[in-house]
Amino acid sequence: MNQLYGERAVITGAASGLGRALALVLAGKGWKIGIADVNDAGSRETLELVERAGGSGEVFHADVSKPESVKEMADHFYSKWKAVDILVNNAGIAISGVIGDIPLENWKRIVDINFWGVLYGCHEFIPRMKAQGGGYILNIASAAGLLSMTNMGPYNVTKAAVISLSESLKVEMAPLNIGITVACPMFFNTNLVKDMKHTDPWETEFANAAFQYSRISSDEVARRIIKAVEKGKLYVVPMLSGKVFWANKRLSPSLYYHLMAFMHKHGWLRAMSLKIARWGLV
Ligand SMILES: NC(=O)c1ccc[n+]([C@@H]2O[C@H](COP(=O)([O-])OP(=O)(O)OC[C@H]3O[C@@H](n4cnc5c(N)ncnc54)[C@H](O)[C@@H]3O)[C@@H](O)[C@H]2O)c1
User: Is the dihedral of CA 167, 169, 174, 178 positive or negative?
Assistant: First the structure.
C-alpha cells in the first residue's frame, strides 16, 4: 500500500465472491483478516481458506445496513488489533428493474446496503485511522456506477454514489495519510445475482449470461484490485470491456446516452446486450 505498509484488513461481505477472493490475496501475503458478513457459515469457510493460504483472521457477524453493527465491528477489531491498516467496503447486493416498477422497499434495501453500508464503514474507521496515523480504504463500487447500465437503476445509483464518495475522500483524506481506491469491475461470476430482484425476466437472463460467460474469475479481479491498491490508484477498472465502455462515455456522454436510448427505443439494446454478454465481453 502506498500510505501504510500494514497487515490487518477488515473486509465486509467476505463470506463469498469478491470479498473472499480479496481476503485470500491478502492472506497469501500473510495478512490478518477480519471477515465480516451476515452469512456466518460462509465467513467460517473463508476463515479456513485464509488459514490455508497462509494468513490468519477472525469472523465477525456484521450487517452493514445497520450503523450500530458497523460500529460494533470497528470497536471489536480496534480493541483486538489496536489498528486496522485497510478497510474494504465490499458487501453488496443487486436489484434490477425498470424505474417506476421497482417497489420502493427494494430501492431502500439496496441503498441501505450498497451506499449506507459503505458510508457507515468510512464514518467509523476514518477517525480511528486518523488517530493511528493513517490507513487505507478500498471501496467496491462497479462499472455500473460509471456507465448507468440499462434496467439496473438501483444498482447504478448506489455504485455511482460510492464512486463520488471515494472521489470526495481521495482529496479530504490526503492530509490524514489515508489512501483511497474505488474498484469498478464489470461482471464476474459470484453469488451476487442468485437472489437478485427484477421486474422483467430479461434482466435475470442478461445477468445470468453475463456471470456465466464472464472470462475473468473473482480471484483474478481481486488480484488486479490489490495491485491497484498497492500502487495507490484512485480508480481500478479491472476489465478491458469496462475501460472501453468508460472511455466511450467520457468521449461524449451525451452522444453515448443518446445512442443507448435510440437502440433501446428501437428494441435493439436488449438483444445486443445479451449477445455481448454471451460473448463474455461484459
Ligand atoms: N460479481 C460482479 O459481477 C460484480 C461486479 C461489480 C461489482 N461487484 C461488487 O462486488 C461486491 C461483492 O459482490 P460479489 O459479486 O462478490 O457477490 P456475493 O453475493 O458473492 O458476495 C456479497 C457478500 O456480501 C454479503 N452481504 C450482503 N448484504 C450484507 C449486509 N447487509 N451486511 C454484511 N454483508 C452482507 C453477502 O452475504 C455476501 O457474502 C459487491 O459490492 C458487488 O456490488 C460485483
Answer: negative
User: What does the pLDDT look like over 65-81, one tens digit per residue?
Assistant: 999 999 999 999 999 99
262 C-alpha to center of ligand 1: Å? 32
- Mean pLDDT, consecutive 10-residue segments, the chain of 282 residues? 70 98 97 98 98 97 98 98 98 96 97 98 98 98 97 97 98 98 97 91 94 96 98 98 97 97 96 94 91
CATH number of 8-278: 3.40.50.720
Segments making up each domain of the chain, as ranges: 8-278
Closest by CA position to 34, among listed 66, 75, 92? 75
Q: Which residues are catalytic?
A: 155
Determine the Cα–Cα distance for residues 91 and 162; give it in Å rounded to an integer. Answer: 12
For residue 216, give the C-alpha cell.
Answer: 475473468
What does 23-46 look like in DSSP terms, one character per residue?
HHHHHHTT-EEEEEES-HHHHHHH
Is any ligand 1 atom within 6 A of the Cβ of residue 158? no
